[in-house]
Write a structure and sequence with these properties.
The chain has 13 helices and 17 strands. The protein is α/β, with parallel strands linked by helices. 39% of the residues are buried. Bound molecules: 5'-deoxyadenosine and iron/sulfur cluster.
Length: 429
């Protein structure tokens, strides 16, 4: 979501005549588009923004995004060189904020969450092949550890006609893949009048000619339905990959996290998905070291990962976020333990990913070739075309770079935990 916001900001700046420079000290304008999900991300911004030196009135410095919403005018106290602070709902004000900052040299605050514009597209994209498309903003779930509902507000769905117009424009410009973005895409449309829901949205988008692949993040287990899985199976352009954060394998911890499902509910969902869409890949997010997580609780997460066999898992150390419910609980798992548990799960997942990828050897995958990459054959580094399979696995294969932007059938010859390596399947192209 932040990458998409940064892209929109870049588009606006380009329209104003700005161009990127390679070093911060050459810049006339420095913006930090920030994340507040974990403390570590914030610390990096405090550190890096603190190092930007003013030469008179330049550069203009702006703190944008979730940290702006979270800390508001406190930022001016900690970083007096900052000219403006702009929350995620106010990014369309950035050109005006820059103009004002240049004229007034006063510290400007734009953190009005009510202002969220729904027609949020200036057409600018970094790629000309794959595009992120926001379908909704905010979140109503209030998972006890999560700051998102406080900095991005309540759920608001974009009107269907706006999304369709944006994707039709992308298709006309030659884009092949879109990724629909929302904190909880499965609740798309619940705040709009009429029977519109996420599956109806997918059906509408699937009919747009030229868009070969539709992905979506993130799905909350409490709202993912068999109807969605059927759509994944039946709609040709919807990819067979679901990102479904589990967060923890212990029901006690899931309850304290306010996730509204049990491990049993989650396992049932995975089972239904795998029956409906046999080749589907599942990725997940896990938090280790949540308050009260004992070794026994942690082992339940470990066991759940062994049982489920995810294709990919993002593992995070719990980070208390002020304003959230969990910040009231004692952060009683030491950092050392969090780190150890993090490593244990990453190691486990590495082995599972490798084993799962090995099953793919010999099969042919449809890959959207998107750029250059390389891999090692023995000690020799080989140039390769890089792309992703429908199940979202990075795939490398030798071939001419004019394959880029094409869908190529690749026979998989070998794999690592994170990449598939193959060759163009001449029989199937
Ligand atoms: N500490 C650690 N991880 C967190 N996440 C969200 N909030 C926190 C937190 N306070 C993780 C969740 C979420 C992912 C985007 O970030 O796993 O799914
Ligand atoms: Fe945060 Fe939970 Fe909403 Fe995801 S669903 S953004 S983890 S509150």
């Amino acid at each position: 979501m932040n990458v998409r916001d940064s892209e929109i900001i870049l588009g606006m700046l380009k329209e104003k005549g700005y161009a990127p420079v390679s070093k911060p000290d050459q810049a006339e304008l420095v913006l930090f588009n920030t994340c507040s999900v974990r403390q570590h991300a914030e610390e990096r911004v405090w550190g890096q923004a603190g190092m930007i030196k003013k030469r008179g009135a330049r550069p203009v410095i702006g703190i944008v995004g979730c940290m702006a919403q979270n800390y508001q005018e406190q930022i001016f106290r900690r970083l007096p060189q900052v000219d403006f602070v702009c929350g995620p709902a106010n990014i369309y004000d950035i050109p005006l904020l820059i103009e004002k900052a240049l004229k007034e040299h006063s510290q400007l605050l734009a953190v009005n969450m009510e202002k969220r514009p729904l027609l949020c597209d200036n057409g600018y994209r970094i790629s000309n092949l794959k595009a992120f498309v926001s379908i909704m903003y905010g979140c109503n779930n209030f998972c006890s550890y999560c700051i998102v509902p406080y900095v991005r507000g309540r759920e608001v769905s974009r009107p269907l006609r706006h999304i369709l117009a944006e994707v039709q424009d992308l298709a006309a410009r030659g884009f092949k893949e879109i990724t629909l973005l929302g904190q909880n895409v499965n609740s798309y449309g619940k705040d709009l009048p009429g029977p519109l829901n996420f599956v109806r949205l997918l059906e509408n988008l699937d009919r747009i000619k030229g868009i070969e692949r539709i992905r979506f993040v993130t799905s909350h287990p409490k709202d993912a339905t068999p109807e969605l899985f059927k759509a994944m199976r039946n709609l040709a352009s919807v990819c067979e990959h679901l990102h479904l954060p589990l967060q923890a394998g212990s029901d006690k911890i899931l309850h304290m996290m306010n996730r509204n499902y049990t491990l049993k509910d989650y396992l049932k969902l995975v089972d239904v998905l795998r029956r409906q869409v046999p080749d589907s890949a599942i990725s997940t997010d896990i938090i280790v070291g949540f308050p009260g997580e004992t070794e026994k609780d942690f082992k339940k997460t470990e066991q759940a990962m062994k049982d489920i066999q995810f294709d990919e898992a993002f593992v995070f150390k719990y980070s208390p976020r002020f304003k959230t419910k969990a910040a009231e609980f004692k952060d009683d798992v030491s950092n050392k333990k969090k780190l150890q548990r993090n490593h244990r799960l990453l190691e486990l997942q590495g082995a599972i990913s490798l084993k799962k990828n090995k099953h793919i050897i010999g099969s042919t995958e449809e890959v959207l070739a998107e750029g250059k990459g390389s891999y090692f054959q023995g000690a020799k580094k080989k140039q390769a075309v890089l792309g992703r399979s429908r199940s979202n696995k990075v795939t490398l294969f030798p071939g001419k770079m004019d394959l880029i932007s094409k869908l190529v059938r690749v026979r998989i010859k070998r794999t690592t935990a994170h990449t598939l390596i193959g060759e163009v399947d001449d029989k199937k192209n």
